[in-house]
Structure formats: structure tokens, C-alpha cells
Write a structure and sequence with these properties.
Layout lengths: L5 E4 L5 H12 L3 E6 L6 H7 L3 E5 L5 H15 L4 E4 L14 H29 L2 E6 L12 H21 L4 E8 L6 H4 L10 H13 L10 H10 L6 E4 L3 H18 L1 H8 L8
Parallel strand pairs: 1-2, 1-4, 2-3, 4-5, 5-6, 6-7
């Protein structure tokens, strides 16, 4: 019989997080299900009993995060898999987005994941095992107009997680960035929007036109549960994995364009290099 694992899932009240919590419990594991209002987990707790620990949690509150992880560890003896899923998608151009909106975006999508990651690391290091699954986005690897602040939060998550993976591998801790492409989860509808400015109508049109012209086909949110469980069972999980199809082609185009641009302007790079050799001609 396989070992029962303990999962800590943020943002488990809706969307992919809710589907994943249900799937993990149906699989026989335990779940610490967190949301701003844990009362929504009542039906889940009725079905799965003591294998569910519902917790109120605002991931932007670092002390609350630490307390939640401590409570989870007291109840279940340790956290085997952290899923940093809590987040929202702020829509707006860089100039349109308000200062508080921008800070809130980073607080939830980046700092929230950072605080929960830091909170579980001591226990995982002590046990010399653990999995940290960071829910990023295809927007963590590319950037589109009118989504710059949202995607900045995901780029920050990507960089932090890649560094973290190299830091904790020696302790048997695996870090994986999950990059969903397009799933109808209601994320956009439930997320804050900036006040549109007519000067940037072209940017919003470019975003929608790009989405319409993309090769991304909306995926089935329920199907991601099987992918998540397969990822958790993989003995050597990847640093990054796309959830959904069409992303590889988009990334080939993106990265080829980056390299081409850098090569085109390599003469400026060489100019900036200069020479520390006083005898160089």
C-alpha cells in the first residue's frame, strides 16, 4: 500500500485548487485546504473527515502563513507536498494599473508563494524530502500587452523557484513550476481589473487578437487533476511543466525571437564590454 501523503494547497476554494483538493483526497491522501474563508470546505470535510484540515488563510499575511503551516504539521506530522495555487490575474496596461493593485498582485502571486514556501522548508529539510509545486503560467515565460503586472508576478515566481530548486535539491526537495496555458476556471472574471484608458485601447485589442490567433485550445480543468497526481508520483519531476497544449510552439517562437534580438545587437554588447587590458589596441 502506498504511503499517505499530506498536501498543503493554497487557494483551494475554487478553480484548479478546488479540483485538485478533491482529487488528492479521492486518491487517499490528506489535504490542508486553505482559503480566505475556510467555511466553503464544509462539504469536503463531511465527505473526507479527518483527512481534511480546512484553514482560513490570507497568504499575504506572513505570520498567518507560519501559523497555518505549524497547525498543519501538528495535526499531520509534516507537509509532503506544497501547492502554491492562490492567486489572481490583474488585467491592465502598466500605466493603467493602480499602485495598490500592483502591490496586491505581487503580494498574492509572488510574496504569498514565497511565505508558504519558506514556512514548509525547515520541516522538509529535516525530513530530507518534499515537493513544492508552484502554480505559474505560460505568462511566466512570455509577456503580453495589458497583462504586464500579472506576468511580472509570475516571472518573479519563476526566478525564485529556479534558484530554490538548486538550493534544496541536496535535501531531497523537488521544486516544479506548473505552467497552465488556457483553462476556463473563471480566474479572469474573479480577478480585479484596472480602469481602462482610451490611450491603450490598441494594447487591449492586441491582447485579444493575439489570444484569438493563438494555437491555444482551452483545456479541461478536471483533466489537470490526473496530471497533478502523475507529477507528484514522478520520481524525478521536472523544474517546469506546461499544463495544456500549444505552449511548446509559442515558446519556440518567443525564445528564438529573444536570441535573434540579442544577436542583432551584439555589437552594442561588445561596445559595453570595453577592455581592461591597457595594451589592447
Amino acid at each position: 500500500m502506498s504511503t499517505v501523503r499530506t498536501w498543503f494547497i493554497t487557494g483551494a476554494s475554487r478553480g484548479l485548487g478546488a479540483l485538485w483538493a478533491e482529487a488528492v483526497l479521492a486518491h487517499g491522501d490528506r489535504v490542508v485546504a486553505t482559503a480566505r474563508d475556510a467555511s466553503v470546505f464544509g462539504p469536503l470535510a463531511e465527505r473526507y473527515g479527518s483527512r481534511v484540515l480546512p484553514l482560513d488563510l490570507d497568504v499575504t499575511d506572513r505570520s498567518a502563513v507560519d501559523a497555518a503551516v505549524e497547525e498543519a504539521e501538528r495535526k499531520f506530522g509534516g507537509i509532503d507536498i506544497l501547492v502554491n495555487n492562490a492567486g489572481h490575474m490583474l488585467h491592465g496596461t502598466v500605466e493603467e494599473v493602480g499602485a495598490e493593485q500592483a502591490r496586491a498582485q505581487m503580494d498574492v502571486n509572488f510574496f504569498g508563494a514565497l511565505w508558504t514556501t519558506r514556512a514548509v522548508l525547515p520541516g522538509m529539510r529535516e525530513r530530507r524530502s518534499g515537493r513544492i509545486l508552484q502554480v505559474s503560467s505560460i505568462g511566466g515565460l512570455v509577456a503580453y500587452p495589458a497583462l504586464g503586472i500579472y506576468q511580472a508576478s509570475k516571472w518573479a515566481l519563476e526566478a525564485m523557484s529556479q534558484s530554490l530548486a538548486a538550493e534544496v535539491e541536496v535535501y531531497g526537495i523537488h521544486v516544479t513550476l506548473i505552467e497552465p496555458i488556457m483553462f476556463p476556471t473563471g480566474l479572469a472574471e474573479a480577478s480585479p481589473q484596472s480602469q481602462p484608458h482610451p490611450a491603450y485601447a490598441h494594447a487591449r485589442e492586441a491582447l485579444f487578437a493575439g489570444a484569438a490567433a493563438s494555437r491555444f485550445t482551452p483545456g479541461d480543468p478536471a483533466a489537470t487533476s490526473a496530471a497533478l497526481l502523475a507529477l507528484a508520483d514522478a520520481p524525478h519531476p521536472p523544474l517546469r511543466v506546461l499544463f495544456g497544449t500549444g505552449g511548446i510552439d509559442a515558446l519556440r517562437t518567443e525564445f528564438a525571437g529573444r536570441l535573434a534580438g540579442l544577436e542583432e545587437w551584439d555589437h552594442i554588447s561588445r561596445l559595453a564590454q570595453g577592455s581592461l587590458d591597457p595594451t589592447a589596441k
